[in-house]
Amino acid sequence: MVRVMVVDDHPMWRDGVARDLAEAGYDVVAAVGEGRQAVRAAAAVRPDVVVLDLRLPDMPGAEVAARLAEVEPPPRVLVLSASAEQDDVLEAVKAGASGYLVKSASREEFLDAVRRTAAGDAVFTPGLAGLVLGEYRRLAAQDAPGDGQGDGPRLTDRETEVLRLVAKGLSYKQIADRLVLSHRTVQNHVQNTLRKLQLHNRVELVRYAIEQGLDAD
Questions:
Q1: What one-character DSSP code corresponds to residue 124?
Q2: Where are the 4-aspartylphosphate modifications (predicted)?
Q3: Among 5, 11, 9, which Cα is nearest to 27's?
Q4: 31 DSSP 8-state letter
Q5: What digits encode the pLDDT tens for the residues 149-195?
Q6: Residue 202 and residue 189: Cα distance in Å, rounded?
């Protein structure tokens, strides 16, 4: 059972999200209203996914996401925010959030986003994924990357093929369907690639792929 923690300073919203998750079969291990409390709770209850609001009374949500990345083992963070502002989205992702969903999403969209986040997908409200990829392309151009993998870690042809599709924004299920593989096999390829490249999450993996030009057709 996927363990989920909810972080939101509005009690009615927090309780409603926790109830929806519990009814959908998730194990809601904590529901808290402050950032520092969330970091302490995550270290104690070890959630797989943290559903995080950005507007918290004691610290910015992006800072909470960054601190959660230091928890062992680090949970995947799905931001659930009323804001769809570019700066908020990019700040959250750079802090380590795996995905970003606006609060206008339906219950079904939210539950699907939690499921996909737990499975390792990067999940974004439609339109926001392109924003994040565009920012990483801009940063990659500024960094003036070298050509190909050079003397870095060597990936297998299949790992490179999966990485190319990750860079294009495909979910693990879409990649599995495209390559006629199982979902678990795709996850294993991604985990092996993360280990070889010494990266921590799918967001960092996407940036690496873009720097290598793997998102090009």
A1: B
A2: 53
A3: 5
A4: E
A5: 445 567 888 888 888 888 887 888 888 888 888 888 888 888 888 88
A6: 12
